[in-house]
C-alpha cells in the first residue's frame, strides 16, 4: 500500500497518484468481507456480494464526495431501489443529508399524505466510527403545518421555537424516512434543505477531497463488514424472529420509533417458513420483509417480498400469518412472500410507534403440507 504517512501531504498524494492507489487498495480489501469463512460460498450469493460492494461504492461516493460539504447540503439516497443497506425497508423512501452540528439549517417542505414520516440527526458515520448515534428526532405527528400541509423545520444545536430538529455539536448527518402503507393511495412528502449559517464558497478543496475519497472507500469496507457480522450474529437463531438489540440498532442509524425483530432465514427447496403474529398491537404501522444474505432487501420492484399493516390479509381472530416459500403454496395463503431465487438471507419485522412489542412465532414446515390446503393448525 502506498505510504500515506504524515510526511506526505494530501496534495502530494493527489499529484503523485498515491491517493488513488490507496483508494483502490481499500476497495480491494473490501472483497475480503465477501470471502469470509462464514459467508455463503456458492456462485449466486458470492455474485450478489460483489454486486453489493459496487452498490455501496455508489452510495459512498455520493455521500462522502458529491454531497459531502455540510455548508452546502443536499438530499441524496444511501438506500433506494438499487442501493440497499442493512435490511432497508421496501415500504420506505429514504433521504440523507450531511450536516454539521455547529451550523444551523432549515428544511422547507410539504407533509404529503405518506403514512409515517420522521427526521433524525445522527453523530458518527459508517466510514469512520462505524456508528450513526441518534442526536435528535422529529416525527410528522409533532410537526406544525399550515392549512396546505407545508412546514419549516429548524435544525440546530440550540433550542428553537416551532418545528425544531435537535442536533449536537458532533451531529454529522440527517436521515429522513417516509414509510408508505399503500403507495398507490399516498402522496410522498417533499422537502429541501439549506444551511442558514455563513458558509463561504463551494469550490473543490484538494486536501478535503483526499479525505473524502478515502472515506468513501472506508464506507464500503466498514458497511459490508458490519452487516456481515450482524448476519453471523443472527445465525444463532436461524428461522426465528427474536427482538434485536435495540440499542445496537439505534447506534447503527435506526429510527427511535421502531422496534426491530431481526434474524436470518434459510430454507431448503421443499421447505416453507410460517411466521405468525398472534397479537397486533396498537401501532402506526408494522411490516415484515425479506432480504438476501448481505442484508439487501430483495428486489421489491418485481417480486412480492414484504407485507405491512395495510396490505396484509388478517385471520379471523385478527392475527397475521405470513408464508415464506420458494413458490406459491396455494390460494389459501394470501400473505405469501417469494424468496426470489434465494436460499437464505436476512429478515426483519418492524413495530412502528407501537404501544407494545409482542413476539412473533416462526416454524419451518414442508411446502407440500401447505399445498395440500390443510388448516394451519393441522400442519406438522
Topology at a glance:
Elements (H helix, E strand, L loop, with lengths): L9 H6 L2 H17 L8 H24 L25 E7 L6 E6 L5 E8 L9 E7 L10 E7 L7 E3 L4 E9 L10 E6 L10 H29 L11 H6 L6 E9 L4 E7 L7 E6 L15 E3 L11 E6 L10 E3 L5 E9 L8 E6 H5 L9
Parallel strand pairs: 5-6, 13-14
Antiparallel strand pairs: 1-7, 2-5, 2-8, 3-4, 3-7, 9-15, 10-13, 10-16, 11-12, 11-15
Helix pairs in contact: 2-4, 3-4
Report what the structure shows.
With 380 residues, this protein is of the alpha+beta class. The protein folds into three domains: 99 residues; 130 residues, Domain of unknown function DUF1214, C-terminal domain (Jelly Rolls); 141 residues, Domain of unknown function DUF1214, C-terminal domain (Jelly Rolls), CATH 2.60.120. It has six helices and 16 strands. The radius of gyration is 22 Å and the shape is globular.
Sum up the structure in keywords.
380 residues, alpha+beta, 3 domains, 23% helix, globular, Jelly Rolls, four-stranded mixed beta sheet, four-stranded antiparallel beta sheet
Instruction: Enumerate how many helices there are, as a single number.
Output: 6
Order of helices and strands: HHHEEEEEEEEHHEEEEEEEEH
Specify the CATH homologous superfamily of the largest domain. Answer: Domain of unknown function DUF1214, C-terminal domain
CATH topology of the largest domain: Jelly Rolls
Low-confidence stretches: none
Instruction: Please count the beta strands (DSSP E, at least 2 residues each).
Output: 16
Q: What best-fitting shape do the alpha-carbon axes yield?
A: globular
Structural class: alpha+beta
| CA-based gyration radius | 22 Å
Distance between the termini: 57 Å
Spatially, the strands of the biggest sheet line up as 1-7-3-4
Query: Would you identify the CATH architecture of the largest domain?
Result: Sandwich
Percent strand: 25-35%
Number of domains: 3
Amino acid at each position: 500500500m502506498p505510504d500515506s504517512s504524515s510526511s506526505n501531504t494530501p496534495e502530494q498524494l493527489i499529484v503523485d497518484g498515491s491517493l488513488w492507489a490507496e483508494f483502490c487498495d481499500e476497495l480491494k480489501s473490501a472483497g475480503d468481507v465477501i470471502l469470509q469463512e462464514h459467508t455463503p460460498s456458492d456462485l449466486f450469493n458470492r455474485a450478489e456480494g460483489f454486486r453489493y460492494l459496487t452498490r455501496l461504492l455508489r452510495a459512498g461516493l455520493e455521500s462522502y464526495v458529491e454531497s459531502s460539504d455540510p455548508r452546502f447540503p443536499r438530499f441524496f439516497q444511501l438506500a433506494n431501489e438499487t442501493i440497499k443497506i442493512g435490511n432497508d425497508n421496501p415500504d420506505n423512501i429514504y433521504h440523507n443529508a450531511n450536516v454539521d452540528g455547529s451550523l444551523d439549517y432549515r428544511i422547507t417542505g410539504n407533509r404529503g399524505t405518506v403514512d409515517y414520516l420522521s427526521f433524525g440527526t445522527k453523530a458518527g458515520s459508517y466510514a469512520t466510527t462505524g456508528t450513526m448515534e441518534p442526536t435528535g428526532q422529529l416525527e410528522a405527528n409533532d410537526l406544525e403545518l399550515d392549512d396546505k400541509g407545508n412546514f419549516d423545520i429548524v435544525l440546530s444545536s440550540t433550542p428553537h421555537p416551532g418545528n425544531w430538529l435537535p442536533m449536537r455539536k458532533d451531529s454529522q448527518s440527517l436521515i429522513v424516512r417516509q414509510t408508505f402503507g399503500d403507495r398507490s393511495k399516498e402522496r410522498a412528502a417533499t422537502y429541501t434543505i439549506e444551511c442558514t449559517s455563513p458558509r463561504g464558497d463551494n469550490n473543490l478543496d484538494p486536501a478535503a477531497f483526499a479525505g473524502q475519497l478515502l472515506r468513501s472507500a472506508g464506507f464500503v469496507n466498514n458497511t459490508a463488514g458490519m452487516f456481515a457480522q450482524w448476519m453471523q450474529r443472527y445465525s444463532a437463531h436461524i428461522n426465528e424472529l427474536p427482538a434485536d438489540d435495540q440499542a445496537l440498532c439505534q447506534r447503527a442509524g435506526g429510527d427511535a420509533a421502531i422496534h426491530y425483530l431481526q434474524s436470518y432465514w434459510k430454507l431448503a427447496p421443499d421447505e416453507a417458513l410460517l411466521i405468525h403474529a398472534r397479537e397486533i398491537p396498537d401501532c402506526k404501522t408494522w411490516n415484515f420483509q425479506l432480504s438476501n444474505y448481505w442484508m439487501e432487501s430483495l428486489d421489491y420492484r418485481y417480486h412480492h417480498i414484504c407485507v405491512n399493516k395495510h396490505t396484509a390479509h388478517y385471520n379471523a381472530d385478527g392475527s397475521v400469518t405470513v408464508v415464506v416459500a420458494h413458490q406459491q403454496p396455494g390460494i389459501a395463503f394470501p400473505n405469501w412472500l417469494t424468496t426470489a431465487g434465494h436460499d437464505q438471507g436476512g429478515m426483519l419485522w418492524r413495530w412502528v410507534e407501537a404501544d407494545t412489542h409482542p413476539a412473533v412465532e416462526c416454524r419451518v414446515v414442508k411446502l407440500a403440507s401447505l399445498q395440500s390446503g390443510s388448516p394451519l393448525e393441522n400442519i406438522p
